Amino acid sequence: MYVKMLILFLILLSMSITLTYSSPGDNDPFYVSCVESCKSSNCTKDGKGFKEDKQPFILKMTLWYCNHECKHECMWKTVKIFNERFRKTPQFYGKWPFIRILGMQEPASVVFSLLNAFVHIKMMRKFRAKVKPGSPLFWLWHLFFVVCLHAWLWSAIFHYRDFVFTEFLDYACSFSLLLMNLYLVSIRLLHNKVSKYALIVITVAFIMFLTKHVAYLSKRPIDYDYNIKLNVAIGTISGLSWYIWCFYNRNRQKYVWKCAVYVTISGTALALELFDRPPYFYVLDYHSLWHLATTPLGLFMYRFGIDDCEFLRRQKLDGDSKKDFPYTGKHQV
Ligand SMILES: *[C@@H]1O[C@H](CO)[C@@H](O)[C@H](O)[C@H]1NC(C)=O
Questions:
Q1: pLDDT in tens, 23-77
Q2: CA of 65 to the centre of ligand 1 (A)
Q3: Which residues line ligand 1 at a C-beta cut-off of 6 Å?
Q4: C-alpha–C-alpha distance, residues 148 and 152, integer Å
Q5: CA distances to 166, 263, 326 from 247, in Å
């Protein structure tokens, strides 16, 4: 019953999230003519340079070209007009207006993405301090770390400045992060049940799937709808697999609650994506709060990893020293 409701919820969620490029703000005639006149009076012919360059250094560094500046300036003028007429603050090109800080387009999302990256670094250090290098699946957690850190850094860069290139990398990386979670649970559940060759086949299949979808994402225009449905499907499969596995092992491996908390937070945090309202103080929107909500994930998952590697190491030692005895599980923590 619970699982069915969860699936229904996720399907509804995947249908409700549709990203579009054209929004009320950038369609408004005032905005359109504002950008046009701003560009013709301030920008050079290619739209990038300024006729009269007074741009602060940090904005130059973060590639705010003249046409971007015009769009930014006209965005705020349009917002002001909308608010004066008591109309809801509009989106522009699928994004809410945010106060620009140090050239950051979406400062809150940048900060929270970096916070996620920081938690991964901190927890990996803890993992490396606590887990003995020869432990089973030691490498798997390192791979998890690299993929997650890479994804969060690109998320920060994309929210700093939205270009076709950074957008592509953000989408490709968040897909790689989700797929990494599915890979993690697959390998954890199968590594001592199937042969090494089967694991290699699984790994190759994951790499091929990643490559194929990333190639697909590189095509324009991005099919946001399909991408989100695929992401939700992958997230759901990994989450449910973890839940079921945690449930069956809850008595033998007391520490699995950490993993269950990880899955629960991921699922709950996703609900923040359902809200779509103008940002509080033109800084905090629900997308950034979603990134904030994912920061505790690393705290639980690496702690689970530490306990699990130790569990597997003892299990292996037990198995090696008492090969002739049937496994009783009595020696486990
Ligand atoms: C463009 O020029 C106008 C008039 O000089 C000025 O008010 C405006 O701030 C300029 N905009 C940009 C983006 O440089």
A1: 888 889 999 999 999 999 999 999 899 998 889 999 999 999 999 999 999 999 9
A2: 13
A3: 38, 41-42, 69-70, 73
A4: 6
A5: 40, 12, 24
Q: What mean pLDDT is predicted for residues 307-313?
A: 95
- Residue ID of nearest Cα to ligand 1 atom 14: 42
Output the six-digit token pair for 251. Answer: 């008595």
Cβ atoms within 10 Å, residue 265: 18
Index of the ligand 1 atom closest to the CA of residue 43: 14
C-alpha 91 to ligand 1 mean position (Å)? 22
* Closest-CA residue to 72 (of 87, 46, 45, 93): 93
CA of 42 to the centre of ligand 1 (A): 6
Residue nearest to atom 7 of ligand 1 (CA): 38
CA of 101 to the centre of ligand 1 (A): 19
Please list the alpha-helical segments (H only) found in the chain. 2-16, 24-27, 29-42, 57-61, 66-84, 107-130, 138-160, 164-190, 196-217, 224-248, 257-270, 286-293, 295-321
**0.70 surpassed by pTM:** yes
The model's confidence at residue 150, banded by pLDDT at 50, 70 and 90, is very high
Q: Report domain extents, the chain.
A: 2-20+115-324, 24-84
> CA–CA separation, 248 vs 253, rounded Å?
9
Residue nearest to atom 1 of ligand 1 (CA): 42
